[in-house]
Amino acid sequence: MSTKKVEFISSRENECIKRVKKLHDKKYREEFKSFIIEGLKLVKEAIDYQIKCVNILIFSQQAKEKYQEFYNECKYLLQDGKIKRVIEVPDKLFEYITTTSTPQGILAECNFIDTDINFIKNLKRVVVVNKLQDPGNLGTLIRCADAFGFDAVITTKGTVDIYNPKAIRATMGSLFHLLIVREVEEGELIKILKDNSFIVYVATPYGDIEVSKIVPDKRFCVVIGNESEGVSDSFTKVATRKIKIPMVGKAESLNAAVASSIVLYELRKR
Amino acid sequence: MSTKKVEFISSRENECIKRVKKLHDKKYREEFKSFIIEGLKLVKEAIDYQIKCVNILIFSQQAKEKYQEFYNECKYLLQDGKIKRVIEVPDKLFEYITTTSTPQGILAECNFIDTDINFIKNLKRVVVVNKLQDPGNLGTLIRCADAFGFDAVITTKGTVDIYNPKAIRATMGSLFHLLIVREVEEGELIKILKDNSFIVYVATPYGDIEVSKIVPDKRFCVVIGNESEGVSDSFTKVATRKIKIPMVGKAESLNAAVASSIVLYELRKR
C-alpha cells in the first residue's frame, strides 16, 4: 500500500494539463508515445484489460460526484500502485482538455499499446487496414474485428491514426481486446505475411467471389482498403482471393464501414 | 419546347432563396411538403428516378463552370418542361443556402416522395425503422435496404426525419430507388402488417435465433430499433422471430448502423 493521494490541479499552466492538451495532436502523441481515452466505458475497459498502459486518470469535479463508485475504485488502484496518478480538476478545466463536445468528465492518458509486427507469427485471424481515412470508420472496424473473433488489427502507413480520439471513441474499448500493429510499410507487411504463410483475402467491389462463399483458411488476413480508392495494387497483386459483397438493388456501393463490417462478419470465428 | 430560361438570383431576400433556407428546418419541410438534396450524385439520382419530384434546381456559378455538361442537360430538361425552375446564384449566396460544410454547388428542392402506408399491400420485403435517432444511421440503412433488394423502408413515429439533410446525404440517392413510408403510428403499422400477413422479424441483441439461420419468408418485414433502447415492446410482442447477430469476442455490442446492415445483408434478396 503506497501513500499516493488524488491530486487537485486547477491551472492550465500545470505540466500535466499541458501534456494532455498536446495529445490532441498526432505530432505530440508520437513524441510522448501516449494517447487520450475518454468516458467511463473506455476508461473501464483500459483498466480491466490493459491497466499497465494507464498513466494519468483525470476526473472533473462533476464526474467525481456522479461516478462516485468508480472514483473510489480508482483511488484504491492508486493506493495499490496500479495507476500512477489520479487527478481531480474543476469542470471548466476539464472542458479545456476534453476531446469531445459532450464530455463525461473522465479522461485517461495511456501509453501506446501497439505491438511489433513480429507478433504476427502467433496469430491466425488478422484484419489489415490499408489507407482508410475516416477515424470513425477505423474505430468501428476495430469494434467489429473484436466482435467477430479476430486476433489483431494491423494498419498500413497512410491509414488514419488509431490513436485519433474519434477512432478511439468508435472502438468502444475494443482496441484493448485485441492486438494492434500500427502503420506498417506495405512491402514489409506483405513479406511478413508471406513468410508466415498467411492466406490473403482482399475486399473489393471488383472481387471474383462472394464473401459468403469463402470458407476461411486456418490462418488468414483480410485487407480492407480506402473509402474511395479501395485496396492498394500491392495487396491486390498478392491476394489469394478477391472477395465482394453481393448487391441486388440500384445502389452502386455500400458505406465503407458497413461493407467492411459485413466482410468481417462473414469471415468471423465460428 | 417551352421558352423557360435559367434565372439568375443574387439576393437573400428573394422568395425562392428564403424558401430553400427554411427547408433546413423540419417545421418548414412539413409546411411546404418539400426537402433539399445536394451534390451532383444525389441530384442526378433524383432526376433519373423521380424527376417529377424536382421543383427547383440551383447551381452556384462555380458549379455551373465545373459541371458544364450536367448544367446543359438541366437546361434542356427545363426547356422540355421536365424541371420547373433552374436558378444560378453567386457562390456566396450558395454558401448561405447549403446544408453542408463542403458544398458541391448543386442543390435541388424536391417534393416529398413518401407514399401511403396502404401501398404495403403490393410489397414483399420491407424494412421497418423504429425510433432510430441518428440521421446518418437512417440514411446508411436506406442505402443498405436498396443494395440488398428491399422494396420499402417504413419509419415509425419518433424516428429521425428521413428528409433531414444528413440522412438524405447518407442514402447516396437510394431513397429514390425504393418506396418510403414515413412516421407511421406503431399500432396502426402493426395492424396493417398483420392484415397483410407479413412475417415480422425483430432485430435484437436478445434474439433467440441467429440471423444466418433465418430463411426469409416470401413476405416479411424486419424491424430495426433505436440505437440504445432497441425495438419497442409493441413490435417485440408481435415478432414472429427475434433475430440476433452472433458475436464471439469481448465487444458487448456493435455499432447500430453496422448491426442493422448485417441483418439486412443476411435477409437480402437472393
Give me the strand/helix succession of chain A.
Answer: EHHEHEHHEHEEHEHEHEEEHEH
Extended strand count of chain A: 12
Q: Rough shape of chain A?
A: elongated
At CATH level 3, the topology of the largest domain in chain A is: Alpha/beta knot
CATH superfamily of the largest domain in chain A: SPOUT methyltransferase, trefoil knot domain
Sheet bearing the most strands of chain A, described? 7 strands, parallel
Strand order in space, largest sheet of chain A: 8-7-6-11-9-12-10
Residue runs with pLDDT of under 50 for 5 or more positions of chain A? none
Terminal Cα span of chain A: 45 Å
Strand residue content of chain A: 15-25%
State the helical fraction of chain A: 25-40%
What number is the mean pLDDT of chain A? 96
Structural class of chain A: alpha/beta
List the domain count of chain A as a whole number: 2
Q: Determine the most extensive contact between two protein chains.
A: A-B, 35 and 35 residues
CATH class term of the largest domain in chain A: Alpha Beta
Tally of alpha and pi helices of chain A: 11
Oligomer: homodimer
Rg calc of chain A? 20 Å
Quickly give the CATH architecture of the largest domain in chain A: 3-Layer(aba) Sandwich
